[in-house]
Amino acid sequence: MTQTPHQIPRILVLEHDPSDPLLRLGGWLAEAGATVDVCRAHAGDPIPTDTSGFDAVISLGGDMGAYDDADAPWLPATRRLLAHAVADRTPTLGICLGAQLLAAAGGGIVTAGMNGPERGAYLTARRDAAEHDPLFSELPLTPDVMHYHDDVVSVLPPGATLLLSSPGYPHQAWRQGDAAWAVQFHIETGADDLRKWASHDDLPMTGRFGPMLDDAAETMALVWRDVAARFVGLAATRAQRR
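^ that's the sequence the OP posted. Answer follows.
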């Protein structure tokens, strides 16, 4: 069904770091019929106090930690907005740092990963709860993911539903409430984006940054483009209700 202008969902995107914008996710959202308003918090754009005027929220990644309020003074306002979005049942997606901020906003705990950082291409495993999830039900059983993080959500928020796990760190993706999703990995990046980050850290372009990273990026593009479309569908439903 073609969307009429008033049904086009409007998505608020919280950008925490200039090195991690929407990238390919921006194209997927536009493809699915959404418009985006990018709040560049790192550049001084104010964080909205609530979700009025928006049909969905996406919180992106960044180099800072979820509690680094002194270095990133907009983080407290971000956590408050994400808590409001969960309570208001606004479709919400947190990616990497955004996932950690979403967890912290809901009473979860973010710590440094006890098994070290996850960087490069990895596999995850779908949990049983994903079978009936609005976003994750059609994911393959062992989807490829791309990681670039040191911190992890060591304790999920109360009532959260675990959707994806891995042997290294069990909390790879989860849902908070009815309409907020978090992914510890990056879905917005391509292989070259991740290699660019790794080059700044002088990491070798072998192993998890070698050909397996290209394979993961290609597979993820197929899987997460569809997830992005389903997310826009949820936002469109909210737009129609508004």
